[in-house]
């Protein structure tokens, strides 16, 4: 986990996340596609490429942001109604992102295809009521897909909902196959965050703040468990530039006690458009030579296993559907891909952005590149979408309607000393960045 001295916090939260460094957006001709998709992107070449810098405003066009009331809902911490807003970020190249301060949710991302026709490329809901009742509802509801949510305190799974820190044993709600998933019963995606509009040179965005109390997701959600220790103050800042980069910058501090922290964003991508059907023909590259296999409850065994010779080898671009039905034991456990890849970060310093993954849709020509400071990424192929959910445009989402790139520390890290630490202590600052960049080929 990247941490910084607490003295750096005020500077970090007083301004939007610094823009990444810039070149002009790239495009590729259709004839170049075959060459692009067969290039192996693992290793030093992939890791040392850099995301583009934000395109500074200097012409007649600058990115814009608008704010629209989106309804009210009960804030779980206070039990009182709270106003929810939708923030629409629009850049100068036809990309538009909608962010909700409910759950820190990415509701939609509209980007042009190779012919300039825009489509929403993330799965989502149309109304606030749908997000509250279906996205990640607490018990007795059966759970949900977490569309676009900011996940926390701990993204992914903690085995049996328990961990030990500084000699104390902490317990969490059990909400997934005997384990604690994505923070438990009432995670960060169920709260109304305090918003602030931010603008920089060539960027617009919104900064969201949430204060998670000591013992959160314990007695305060009706669980006979300790919840998470320490009072956590969390900031998530979304910014958009005209290089079509959506940057997510996380910072956090904790007071009173040390805690564990592993936030991520749970957007489901479908580069052909959210209503286009399955994603099996889309190609993916993951910059990882290893992954973390799991037991039958999807908890890592602790082994860092090579991907070579397995269906988990995406070091060169592969279609999502080409191997997903193989009788590999790990694919059977997750009913498809739902695993953590150990990113290749040799030569990168802690906190330095590295290439995590790329995805391509041959039909539309859209391309997604993922950069992160995190050591892992959860690639999930939408295996548990059952056809029971109607999405933002009125279409039903079925299995494989989208896939996630959840940049993260590894699942169940608090119970695996050999994994990178997720411990955050008083006086430290958590700092993490992920960039989703869209282009065409």
Task: Explain what you see.
By secondary structure, the chain is mainly beta. It has one domain (3-440): Distorted Sandwich (Beta-galactosidase, Chain A, domain 5). Helix content is 7%, strand content 37%. Strands 1, 12, 13, 14, 15, 19, 22, 24, 25 and 31 form a ten-stranded antiparallel β-sheet that branches. It has a six-stranded antiparallel β-sheet with strand order 18-29-26-23-20-21, with no helix packed on it. A five-stranded antiparallel β-sheet has the order 2-3-4-5-6, covered by helices on one side. Strand 24 (354-360) and strand 25 (366-372) form a beta hairpin. Residues 7-48 have low confidence and may be disordered.
What does this entry show, briefly?
The chain is mainly β and 441 residues long. It has five helices and 31 strands. Strands 1, 12, 13, 14, 15, 19, 22, 24, 25 and 31 form a ten-stranded antiparallel sheet that branches. A six-stranded antiparallel sheet has the order 18-29-26-23-20-21, with no helix packed on it. The chain has a five-stranded antiparallel sheet with strand order 2-3-4-5-6, with helices on one face.
Structural class: mainly beta
* Terminal Cα span: 35 Å
CATH fold node name: Beta-galactosidase, Chain A, domain 5
CATH architecture: Distorted Sandwich
- Number of H- or I-type helical stretches: 5
Low confidence ranges: 7-48
Rg, please? 20 Å
Q: Sheet with the most strands?
A: 10 strands, antiparallel
Helical coverage, percent range = under 10%
The number of strands is 31
- Quickly count the domains: 1
CATH C-level = Mainly Beta
Average of per-residue pLDDT values: 90
